[in-house]
Structure formats: structure tokens, C-alpha cells
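WARN retry 2 of 3 for item q-0093 after timeout on previous attempt; input resubmitted unchanged.
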Amino acid sequence: MCFVAALKAATVSDLHPEVGMSTTRTKKALASSAPSSSVDEPVALVDSLLELRQQVEKEGQERFDRWRPKLKGLAFRPGALNMAHYLAFRKRDVRPLQDALTPWGLSSLGRSEGRVLANLDAVLISLAGLTGRTDLQLPPRPKSTAFTLGERLLARNTRLLFGRPPPGRDTHIMVTLPECASEDGAFVESLVERGMSCARINCAHGTHAEWVAMIHHVRAAARKLGRTCRVLMDLGGPRARTGAVFARDGRRLLSGDSLLLRPSAPDPRINEHPFQVQCLPAEIFPHLVTGTVLSIDEGRIRALVESVGERGVLARVTRTPQGGVKLKPDKGLNFPGTVLGLAALTDKDREDLDVVTANADLIGYSFVQNESDIETLWQEVEPRIARARRPLPGLILKIETEQAVHNMPGLMVAAAGRTSVGVMIARGDLAVEVGFQRLAELQEELLWLAEAAYTPVIWATQVLDSFVKKGTPSRAEISDVVMAQRAECVMLNKGDFLPEALAIVDDVFRRMQGHQHKKTSRLRALGVWS
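OK item q-0093 returned
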């Protein structure tokens, strides 16, 4: 199948011809999991795999048909179709089938992300041949191009977003520019020279003039060095934060203390509440009820709402660092499990979009929650783009909340219907929202789902964080960098040792890309023992 034809694919039959796959055996329908089969029962094993394939095709096509009206362009249709199949495939527990297939020397189905039906078809046809099943009407064996189509489309979509990476390295490196980047062009040039292929500007900080100056330095450095370096401008979004704080006699907040949350400034005259904090924006308060969980400063402080009154919301602190912590203003607030109902775009975001649409290659959409948020953004972006006579920027969906995780398939469909789209696994807020113990599992699942949709992923937050800030890496951080290479782009945050950290990440990526690709271990020749 040629590449252009693949882009025009819109139904299952375009990529996988419809075939009648009847069987002489009566089979029980697959529900939420694949039936268990034994290698001692090859007939049942073939039937189980065949039924799984039929159910995945049927349910995937139904989901894709619901998405089709939102796909205004052709480019995302193959990814949307494969993602629909992947969701149908992964709603089932296929571990019994995996175990049963292994002794036959066949794929365990563990690398199906980019080629769901092709993988199932190839294994099914091979298994039927090995077991002598001649009573089935099977699909034709997939062509070899069906197994590389997903990789080629993912590579294409990555190039559309980030351009080509530096020679000798496949994974892009995004760098959050510090404030000095607006004045120090030589510093920016050093970042590009060491491997930065995307510059991130955090629009929660700085001024419009400073952002424009940063972009000027990035463009100048890329031209001078003959490199590609895209600019991502990250909207601040409706982040909840602490405002004014009050701690009587400068006390440190300890586990077990009560904390009064207020929509306005603290009132020191309220003697019974020695700890008070203003929570911004005030619109969050109607959503706080008894039992609401509160996190301050990326989880350093945890509390539980005990009562709601006229003076504010009273919470009991359940966790602080050893020895307590001082309350500070301008710290992030999270309310895990609570939908705050805040508008995706703030008034500040709308002001910033005038500069963003005139300069950015990519827009980072903070705290995006549902498909209506996507429409809200386009309503603001498209008129500005028309006035500026610029192409529509690519869109990066920042997955920062449990609701965004749940809605991620629909978010990708809604966004990719108009422009190139990528996903950022924003591990900072996401860890606080879903719990640190769930983060590792979720980041894996987000990587798999995005790969099934042929959508590039940015692995973000605290990559090589100790080295960036202190100049000394931890062993775990280096391992994290290696794991991060399974994404298409990795983000470094600002710090005193940023250029050196960038060089380390670049070196690790160049060494490791011959050893791994996504979940697949690549068997490059080992030179250590030769």
C-alpha cells in the first residue's frame, strides 16, 4: 500500500479487505476478556484468536464511525482507525492468549500498538497453518508494508510537529528557556548547538516583549547553525494557586494542623485559625465539599476538607515534609478527583494568544479537559491566524489531570481534525492528580495509546532534574532518560546546569537508539564483550 493511499484510508476495508470469517464451530462471544486457551487444545486456540479478531474489527469500526464527522482532514484517519481498534483490543485481558501462543513460536501480541489488525491477522493465519485448520475462511496475509505503516505515519507526524532532529539522533529534545534567553543570544545558540530541537516558552512567566526576544534568538541560532528548532509557546491555563498566606507567629505547618482555605485574603483576627491560605481563583470554592482532597506545592502538603462555612473551607492537614513546612504564596493547588469546572482558556491566555499565534510553531494547551475545550481554543486561534496570514500552529495536548487521561482519545480526534497534534505527558501535575504510585502505569498506557494513533509524545517534567539544578545526576535519573527515549520528544526544564544536562541527554539518546525503539528491544551488535 502506498503512503498516499494510506492517508486516504477511512474504513477497515481500506486497510484490511472485508472477508467472511465463518467457522464450523459454535463459539461463545468474547465479552470483556479473551477466553483462556491451552496449547494442548490448538483448535480452541485458533477459534479464540479468530473471535478476538472479529470483535476488535467490529467494535473498532463502530467507534471510528462515531469519530468520522470530527475528522475534517484525511491525515489523521489511519491513526484514528487504528486507535479505535487498539481500544477494542486492550479492553480485553489477552494474557491467556499470549501465554498460549508463545510455545508455538508466534507473536505474543505485545507489540500491536501501531498495527492492531495486521498483527492479529498474521498470527491467526500462521497459527491456522501450523495447526492444520483448513475449515476457516481467513483474511489474506498482510503485506509487509502493513507492519511498517504505523511507524512511517508516526515519523511523518513527528516531522510535521518538530522538523528533523539533529543528525545521528531520532528523539527530539525540548528545552524550557530561562529568563536570560531573552537577553543572551549566545546562550540560546549554545543550546541549539548541543541538541535542542524545540524551544519551550512558558507563558505563565515573563512578558510579551521577552518572549519575542527569545524567539528571535532561537530563529537566529537555528539559521546560523543550519538546524531546525521549533518554538512551543505554552499557555498558562487556569492553574489554581495559593495567594496570600498567614501563619501565626511564623509557625510551620504540620500534619494534623487545621488549615483555613479562603477565597479572599487571610484574616489574622480569626484567632481560632492560625493557618490560613487564599486559594485562587475564587471560582473553585463552590466545588469544594467535605471529603475533597487538597494538594499544595506538587504534593508537599496534603489535606482533607472537613467542613465548609462562611469564613471559608476548613481542611485537616494529612501530610507534610518531616519537620513541617512554611506556607508560601504562588504555589500550585491540586484537587485530585474533583472537577473544578474552570474555563480552559483564561483572559490572560486570550491576551497571550495575540503573540502566540504571530510567532509560535506549536501551542501548548494547559489543563485541556474535554473536546469543547478544543473548540474554544480554535475559536480564538483561527481569526488571529487569518489576520497574521500564518499557517495553523501544531497543537500539543498537555495531559495533566485524570479527566484528560480519560478523554484522551476524543481529545486527539478533535484536535487532529484540523492540525498536527502531539501529546505531552505532564508528569508533574499528573502525578499529584492521580497519585504518584499510579504515574508509572499511566505514562506507559499514554505512550501506547498515542503510538496507536500515530501521535508524537513529549515526555515532560523532572527529566535529569537533579543535574539541571545541582550539577550532579542521580542513577535513577539516567535510567529515566533511557526510558524517556520511547517518546518522540523529551523536555528539560531550566536550571543552572541546563547546557551540560542537554549534552548528557543527547549523548544517551545517541547511544541507546540502536538498542531500543518504543517497546521493542533492538538487537544491535554488542561491542563490550567482543
